[in-house]
């Protein structure tokens, strides 16, 4: 079944690429706006041979990785503290519900005002967007702890650290890994968006330069790179999630199927 699924996926991709080649050549869209797949592939080859491209890719990955690490660390700690400290969640619930819906792109003027086009501007937007994904999932996970299991651990004399390790953490980890996987995708989106709008070094800034200089095939080639990067990040996040949750029923069932 998996082999058949992979074959169908490859066939679908091949069909999409063929369609992208045929549509502009048949005159259905202007080649100035949407070049054929072959021209985009040529532009991609030129980009891969340019040292500046790899520098921009490194800048994007740096902003993504640092921002994601900060968001995950802060989200897990804050989520656990807000969930286990009595009355603290009620005291912060309205604040969280007010801040969480604010789009990260709305903070771009603030980021530029504070840090200009530096990496810190990208980090501000990435951390803000990814933090909520991890925080909310962590809080859901902690709240899902079975009260009976918690009381049983207390009756057996387990201390706070032992209860966190053996009761809270195994229950919350599936939620946390889901939050990390979502945050990884959101972090990449915000990293590229910040570079595109602010002009911070990275793939987004390179896409903006290609667009303003009318290098349309190069622009599409860079967009393809960001798409492939997002795919790789998602696959990597799912792989880490499966390994971290190899003991969990959902993952065991998935492997068995």
How would you describe this structure to a colleague?
- The chain is mainly alpha-helical.
- It is 82% helix and 0% strand.
- The chain contains 11 helices and no strands.
- It has helices spanning 2-25, 37-48, 51-84, 88-99, 108-115, 119-143, 147-155, 160-198, 203-212, 216-244, 249-256.
- It is elongated.
- The mean pLDDT is 87.
Question: Topology of this protein?
Answer:
Layout: H1 2-25, H2 37-48, H3 51-84, H4 88-99, H5 108-115, H6 119-143, H7 147-155, H8 160-198, H9 203-212, H10 216-244, H11 249-256
Summary tags:
single chain; about 260 residues; mainly alpha; about 80% helix; about 0% strand
Distance between the termini: 10 Å
| Structural class label | mainly alpha
Estimate the helix proportion, in percent.
over 70%
- Strands, count: 0
Mean pLDDT: 87
Low-confidence parts: none
Strand content: under 5%
Gross geometry: elongated
What is the chain-wise order of helices and strands? HHHHHHHHHHH
Total helical elements: 11
* Radius of gyration, whole Å: 23 Å
Largest sheet: none
């Amino acid at each position: 079944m998996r082999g058949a699924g992979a074959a169908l996926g490859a066939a679908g991709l091949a069909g999409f690429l063929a369609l992208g080649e045929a549509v502009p050549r048949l005159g259905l869209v202007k080649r100035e706006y949407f070049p054929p797949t072959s021209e985009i592939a040529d532009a991609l080859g030129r980009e891969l041979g340019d040292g500046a491209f790899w520098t921009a890719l490194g800048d994007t990955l740096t902003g993504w990785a640092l921002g994601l690490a900060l968001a995950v660390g802060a989200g897990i700690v804050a989520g656990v503290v807000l969930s286990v400290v009595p009355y603290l969640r009620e005291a912060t619930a309205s604040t969280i519900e007010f801040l969480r819906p604010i789009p990260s792109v709305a903070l771009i003027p603030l980021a530029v005002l504070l840090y200009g086009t530096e990496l810190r501007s990208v980090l501000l937007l990435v951390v803000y967007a990814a933090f909520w994904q991890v925080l909310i999932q962590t809080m859901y996970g902690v709240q899902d702890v079975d009260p009976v299991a918690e009381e049983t651990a207390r009756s057996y004399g387990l201390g706070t650290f032992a209860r966190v390790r053996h009761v809270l953490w195994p229950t919350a980890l599936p939620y946390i890994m889901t939050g990390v996987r979502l945050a990884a995708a959101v972090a990449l989106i915000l990293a590229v968006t910040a570079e595109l709008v602010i002009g911070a070094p990275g793939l987004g800034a390179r896409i903006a330069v290609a667009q303003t200089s009318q290098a349309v095939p190069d622009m599409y080639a860079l967009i393809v790179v960001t798409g492939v990067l997002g795919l790789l990040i998602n696959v990597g996040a799912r792989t880490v999630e499966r390994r971290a949750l190899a003991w969990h029923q959902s993952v065991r069932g998935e492997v068995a199927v």
